[in-house]
UniProtKB/TrEMBL annotation, chain A:
Keywords (A to Z) from UniProt: Cell membrane, Membrane, Transmembrane, Transmembrane helix, Transport
Taxon lineage: Bacteria, Pseudomonadati, Pseudomonadota, Alphaproteobacteria, Rhodobacterales
GO biological process annotation, one example: response to zinc ion
Transmembrane domains' residue ranges: 12-39, 51-68, 74-95, 107-128, 148-169, 238-260, 266-285
GO cellular component entries: ATP-binding cassette (ABC) transporter complex
Topology relative to the membrane: Multi-pass membrane protein
Source organism: Litorivita pollutaquae
The name this protein goes by in its record: Zinc ABC transporter permease
From TrEMBL, chain B:
Protein name as it appears in the record: Zinc ABC transporter permease
UniProt membrane topology term: Multi-pass membrane protein
SUPFAM superfamilies: ABC transporter involved in vitamin B12 uptake, BtuC
Gene Ontology biological process terms, A to Z: response to zinc ion; transmembrane transport
Classification via Pfam families: ABC-3 (PF00950)
Transmembrane segments: 6-26, 38-57, 63-81, 93-111, 158-180, 192-211, 217-234, 246-270, 276-296
UniProt xrefs under InterPro entries: ABC_BtuC-like, ABC_TroCD
Primary residence: membrane
Keywords: Cell membrane, Membrane, Transmembrane, Transmembrane helix, Transport
Similarity remark: Belongs to the ABC-3 integral membrane protein family.
Disulfide bond listed as a keyword: no
Transmembrane among keywords: yes
Subcellular location: Cell membrane
UniProtKB/TrEMBL annotation, chain C:
Superkingdom field: Bacteria
Keyword Transport recorded: yes
Species: Litorivita pollutaquae
Record-level Gene Ontology MF annotations: ATP binding; ATP hydrolysis activity
Matching PROSITE patterns: ABC_TRANSPORTER_1, ABC_TRANSPORTER_2
Keywords carried by this UniProt record: ATP-binding, Ion transport, Nucleotide-binding, Transport, Zinc, Zinc transport
UniProt-listed InterPro entries: AAA+_ATPase, ABC_transporter-like_ATP-bd, ABC_transporter-like_CS, Metal_Ion_Import_ABC, P-loop_NTPase
An example Gene Ontology biological process: zinc ion transport
Chain coiled-coil ranges: none
All copies of domain ABC transporter, residue ranges: 20-252
Region (Disordered): 264-289
Name the record gives this protein: Manganese ABC transporter ATP-binding protein
Family classification: Belongs to the ABC transporter superfamily.
Keyword Ribonucleoprotein in annotation: no
Length: 404, 309, 289
């Protein structure tokens, strides 16, 4: 526990601190980048990109060994992974555009085939003399334990670079994500913006390989924006919040991992983000599950009550058992189906509201108010008292009595 | 190659690989047509937490608890994806991404936290499977196929995979017409009285069963690849559903057989002396088939379909 | 009379005699009613247009009546019985845009889908079935296209195939969702001829329709809706400027009721409040119509 606290307060040594800062920056960049992907409804493209890095890692290792090196240079491996990620991305794009395959099938095909090829290469590497200690498996799930100083520096720098890119590209990407048709119509090079966005996804993926691992890096691009979406409907806020959630996940996850070196880093970072997501899903105001259930319940009640009262106002029988139960519970209807005094009053008020709507909707001058009709809203909510008085003047003299 | 060498060493892995490929590709046809291709991806990720939890509960590496655990995890994942999608109003891809990464991360962490060092249960095995090890040492040639004694030594994965394949074929055959109608026009299907929700759920459940059984035998890579690549390639060969499914079976078996052979003998032909991952190679071959279909398939492009609306 | 001894819904004479009776139907997408407390009665043998502005709930009402979308309240009765018992007598033609035309199927395969209720899961297609599918296709003038891939059809041809599928069902009540949307003039003429022939055989036809100029020519009954029912009845009685004003709001010009005019009313699209963030074109599902 004390170790975790030490890690959280950046007192675990220089390497761990660098990694934690790098993970936080990476998480922030991933959260913001992922928001744009999410808004474009292309979240799972990142899954293809991340799985497609594996053959690049393998080939880069073999090339470096063939050139006489040790093969473990992080920069070299990252370069290789970036190249094969871009190839995978191009394959997804080509399949979607030039064949009849939909994007999801293209993504699935590319991720499984590239990953399969990567696994083939890994088994080749395992048989190479230099390969046994290569530790390339750590790229699958991420590992920060025993990281070299130079690697930690690369990660911290990579995270910073990703954040800088996000800041530079945020405006065109917001446009493209929010309204692609308008963006294209206004003369923005949509294809190039998309390409830049995918480049950013690739950058985040490549930097994240060592920390989070290629299977789970996609979580860092998807979970923060989805969690953030529960708290806000404005794209700018969602992006900022996703960055924050991603940053916290990266930092806390890396810190926990530093205090428990035997655990793989990636899953911990992801689970921190997942925890934030679950909380958001449940308790966020407006869009959260609890708020939605309460609101829906209220809405159903309102519908049934209004429908029931209108039936009473028109002297029609009520068939829906739920409607009758609700009316009875409100004291508006007796057990034998006859309205109470309060029920008759409420019904005739409801009937009058409906009559007002009839007149309102027939009046061209009140068109904008009429457009707000949805069956459930009271006239009082869309008109001023003066307008209502004017309408009431047109009502038939006697409001019909409710006949029990 | 003589039967004395082929039957014990290659026959069972080839059969298991082919059965697994077919069992996944069959429901995969409908998943691809319904734009649910990535359900296969999601399922294959959540199988890991399923078997880990099953192991923690039972304390042993036994087949049936693990199959149940994996199946249960797939079911939970699908329900969670639906819940996040509907209640949170999140698009399906993102909902899927959230759920399967979370469950996979949980599975890996549980695996690392629990003491599984004594048993053969690790992430890499889950990913790659171990098709090469499913050999039939009691066989001494083709004649062993007719010897009860030898047949008892057949790896149990073969029987399991065969049973699952038969079940999958039974499901698809029974609901063929209903699946075709509800995949093409769900609204119309409902007016016929078809329970499209239940049917879609059953399709995912059958896919999960196929995935779990195949995963147990050959690892999750083949599972994802076989759900998607053979059906996708087959779609570009024909414009009729029946023929598409037939092509997908041909492609699935071709991938399994060629992949296994290339993995085992390819390196030898190239002068190396070690084989490579058969699961990975099967995925690669299915990808090559898909690439060829995408380049030369007679019905590879969308054609003459005016934009709806 | 108290509520407890009212006759059950199905016993009521207005419901028992109607081809389709919808009572108290409310449907919502999210927390906004798309259709509120609608009653609709389609007499047997009627040819009825459901009209109303965009987003008024026309298609939603049809889908809800058929159980395609879930309802908050309300029931639908077909020839006096609850919908679930009468599915065999209904044929539904969805909006063309609602399906994936890239599906691997030929025209004849789609028409044969109309035979599902007879064939069941495993029933064998007999020669008689094939003949019926071919005849349905002939009735919409698409025989030459039987073996064409559906993705290669034009919009009008797709619509005819959908109609042929409905004909193959040999139903008594035909429900069509925007059958004339985006089709060429020849197809429109062919479709209306088929529908009129159905009516002449005593079948009942209900269609969501958006072209006010042709209502009087094509239909004998009309149902006006904008979230709730505005009016219903024979065209002469219900298709009045007054009712149209109520349904469409201020923009409606009486000139548009002139059959010679092809202008349809321009109603400003309503802002979709529910999807504040989602990119364009991703608003509420199926809200149109």
């Amino acid at each position: 526990m004390t170790e975790l606290f030490a890690a959280l307060s950046l007192q675990m040594g220089y390497n761990a601190t660098l990694v934690a800062v790098g993970a936080a920056l990476l998480g922030a960049a991933a959260g913001v980048t992922g928001t744009f992907l999410f808004l474009r409804k292309r979240a799972l493209v990142s899954d293809a990109i991340s799985h497609a890095t594996l053959p690049g890692v393998g080939i880069a290792f073999m090339v470096m060994v063939a050139l006489g090196g040790e093969g473990r240079s992080l920069i070299g491996l990252m370069t290789g992974s970036a190249i094969s990620a871009v190839l995978g991305l191009l394959c997804v794009g080509w399949l979607t555009r030039h064949t009849r395959l939909s994007e999801d099938a293209s993504i699935g095909a590319v991720l499984s085939v590239f990953f399969g090829f990567g696994v083939v290469l890994l088994t080749v590497i395992q048989t190479m003399s230099a390969g046994r200690q290569a530790g390339l498996e750590s790229f699958l799930l991420g590992a920060t334990a025993g990281m070299l100083r130079s690697e930690a520096v690369v990660i911290a720098l990579g995270g910073s670079l990703a954040v800088v890119l996000v800041v530079l590209l945020r405006r065109p990407m917001t446009l493209a994500a929010f309204d692609p048709e308008y963006t294209a119509g206004a003369g923005w090079p949509l294809a190039r913006i998309d390409f830049a966005m995918m480049g950013l996804v690739t950058a985040v993926t490549v930097v994240g390989l060592k920390i989070v691992g290629l299977i789970l890096i996609v979580a860092l691009l998807i979970i923060p924006p989805v969690a953030a979406r529960f708290w806000s409907a404005r794209s700018g806020h969602v992006a900022a919040l996703a960055g924050l959630i991603g940053g916290i996940s990266g930092f806390v996850g890396a810190a926990i991992s530093a205090s428990a070196p035997s655990l793989p880093t990636g899953p911990i970072i992801v689970l921190v983000g997942s925890a934030i997501f679950v909380v958001s899903l449940l308790v966020a105001p407006e869009r959260g599950v609890l708020a939605t259930l309460v609101r829906r319940q209220r809405f159903h009640r309102a519908v049934h009550l209004r429908q029931g009262l209108l039936s009473l106002a028109n002297g029609q029988p009520i068939y829906e058992p739920l409607t009758r139960r609700l009316l009875q519970r409100e004291g508006l209807l007796r057990g034998d189906g006859v309205p109470t005094a309060a029920g008759s009053k409420a019904a005739s008020e409801m009937g009058r509201d409906e009559q007002r709507w009839q007149i309102l909707r027939a009046d061209p001058a009140l068109e904008s108010a009429a457009a707000q009709y949805d069956g459930l809203t009271d006239v009082g909510a869309v008109l001023t008292p003066d307008q209502i008085a004017a309408i009431d003047a047109k009502l038939p003299r006697a409001t019909p009595e409710v006949m029990p | 190659m003589s039967g004395a060498e082929f039957v014990p060493l290659s026959l069972t892995p080839l059969l298991i690989g082919s059965f697994a490929a077919m069992a996944c590709a069959l429901p995969g046809n409908f998943l691809v047509l319904r734009r649910q291709a990535l359900i296969g991806d999601a399922i294959s990720h959540v199988v890991l937490p399923g078997i880990v939890v099953a192991f923690l509960l039972t304390g042993m590496v036994a087949t049936w608890p693990m199959m149940l655990g994996a199946g249960g995890a797939a079911l939970i994942a699908v329900l969670l994806i639906e819940a996040v999608r509907r209640i949170g109003r999140i698009e399906p891809g993102a909902a899927m991404g959230v759920v399967f990464t979370t469950m996979f991360a949980g599975g890996v962490l549980l695996l690392e936290l629990s003491d599984t060092s004594s048993v053969h249960l690790d992430v890499e095995h889950a990913l790659y499977g171990n098709l090469e090890s499913l050999i039939w040492l009691d066989a001494f040639g083709w004649h062993s196929l007719f010897e009860a004694e030898a047949l008892r030594g057949v790896p149990p994965e073969l029987w399991r995979m065969a049973a699952v394949l038969v079940a999958v074929i039974g499901f698809i055959a029974l609901f063929w017409r209903a699946l075709a109608i509800s995949s093409f026009d769900e609204g119309f299907a409902r007016t016929l009285g078809l329970r499209t929700g239940a049917l879609g759920g059953a399709l995912v459940a059958v896919s999960a069963i196929a995935a779990v059984a195949a995963f147990d035998a050959v690892g999750s890579i083949i599972v994802i690849a076989m759900f998607i690549c053979p059906p996708a390639a087959a779609r570009m060969m024909t414009n009729q559903l029946g023929r598409q499914v037939a092509w997908s079976m041909v492609f699935a078996v071709t991938s399994a057989v060629l992949g296994y052979v290339f993995a085992g003998y390819g390196p030898l032909w190239l002068g190396f002396d070690n084989s490579v991952s058969a699961a990975g190679m099967i995925a690669v071959v299915s990808g090559i088939i898909l690439a060829l279909a995408a380049l030369f398939g007679p019905h590879r492009a969308r054609r003459g379909a005016p934009l709806a609306g | 009379m108290t509520q407890n001894d009212i006759p059950s819904m199905a016993q009521r004479s207005d419901i028992a005699t109607a081809a389709l009776a919808i009572r108290g139907m409310t449907v919502s997408y999210g927390e906004k009613p798309a259709v509120f407390s609608v009653d609709l009665t389609v007499p047997r043998g009627a040819m009825m247009a459901i009209i109303g502005p965009n987003g008024a709930g026309k298609s939603t009402l049809l889908k809800a009546a058929l159980g395609v979308v879930p309802t908050l309240s309300g029931e639908a009765y077909v020839f006096g019985k609850p919908l679930a018992q009468m599915r065999a007598r209904i044929a539904y033609v969805p909006q063309r845009a609602s399906v994936d035309w890239d599906f691997p199927a030929r025209v004849i395969d789609v028409v044969a889908m109309g035979l599902y209720r007879e064939l069941g899961l495993l029933g064998r297609m007999t020669g008689a079935h094939r003949a019926r599918a071919a005849e349905s296709l002939a009735r919409v003038g698409m025989s030459d296209f039987a073996h064409r891939q559906i993705g290669q059809l034009s919009g009008g041809q797709q619509q005819r195939v959908f109609l042929a599928r409905a004909l193959a069902q040999e139903a008594d009540l035909y429900l069509l969702d925007e059958p004339f949307a985006g089709v060429d003039a020849a197809t429109e003429k062919a479709i209306i001829a088929v529908l009129q022939a159905l009516k002449d055989q005593g079948k009942t036809v209900v269609a969501v329709h958006h072209d006010l100029a042709t209502v009087k020519d094509y239909f004998d009954h009309v149902f006006l809706i904008n979230k709730s029912r505005i009016a219903e009845g024979p065209v002469e009685a219900a298709f009045t400027p007054d009712n149209l004003q109520k349904a469409y709001g201020g923009r409606l010009v009486t000139a548009q009721l002139d059959p010679a005019s092809q202008i349809t009313p321009v109603v400003p699209p309503r802002k979709d409040l529910a999807s504040g963030l989602a990119p364009k074109g991703s608003g509420t599902v199926g809200g149109a119509g």
